[in-house]
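In the current project phase, the collection of sequences with tokenised folds has grown. One resulting record follows, to show the layout:
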Amino acid sequence: MEKKSAAEVVATARDAFNKGFTKNVTHRMKYLKSFKKFLDENEESIVQAMHEDLRKHREEVRFEISIAVNHLKYLMANLKEWVEPKRPPKRWTDLLDGVYIYNDPLGVVLVMGAWNMPVLTLTPVTGAIAAGNCVVIKPSHNCPAFGNMLANVLPRYLDSMCYPVFLTGDIHQTTILLEQRFDYIYYTGSSSVGKIVHLAANKYLTPTTLEMGGKNPVYIDPSADLELTATRVMWGKCLNSGQACIAPDYVLCTKSVEKEFVIHARNALRKFYGDDPRCCPIVNNQHFNRLQSLMSGLNIVIGGRTDPLENYIEPTVATDVSPDDPIMQEEIFGPILPIVTVTCFKDAVETLP
């Protein structure tokens, strides 16, 4: 079958929405159940695709799927209540009127998924389905195996006129897609691409959600349980090799806390991985080289080994890091944890950018 252009895909979805195919609440519930069935019945295919793209461990993929399934259960449990008209308080000017608020669908929604957690970035799709919209689903071109699996399998469960999967091979094709008129855009990914999405949305004043990461600091107070804290911080930093928007980016603590934290962090990694702490690899050469460059000149106290053939970076902790160092100027998005020492909580707050 010949691949449709971006304009054709959006026009088909808009025609389906205008004909009311997705507005019926029974229809919405049916396709939410079908989406859950897709996740339940195709777990192995999803695991294989994400291993091919990211060499992601099976348990990490199952973790993503479980979150998506729980989100679907939440939508299905509350949908009927959400679609009921609301009766706001009346003003004196409309005392004799029937006043209602209806939560109507917007139309055709574009959901642009991220490469780091492809299944999780499908959750806005299910939210848009629950709201009665048609949805154009665009997986990241950095995950071709997952995107192809989605394009081939999802139409068995969802109407492809209402919920098409549109694959783009590069940024140019994504730009063409963004030139189309949507009624809402949901993007998950980097700030640099987020700016492009926002600029494209300006043309039609399209409402947009940009779900992006940042430099998420962790302040460790001297009163904390440092063994538990180190275990949790290192778990967050190692999940998907730190390639998650909510991963701890760096630690702020006193010098005495730092010393004990490093001991517990090393023990946590040994507990997680044994003597060979291998997370999944970095997604591609570009990001691997960026991370390797950020590691240059750091005082590394844990890890630090890299393998350019495998795009592998060992979970790494660095001390004596200055707020002015290159690694502190951008979101790390990798398994490298810098520690910046401060004298107290107030000092930590003032150190934040």
The chain has a mean pLDDT of 93. The longest strand covers residues 184-189.
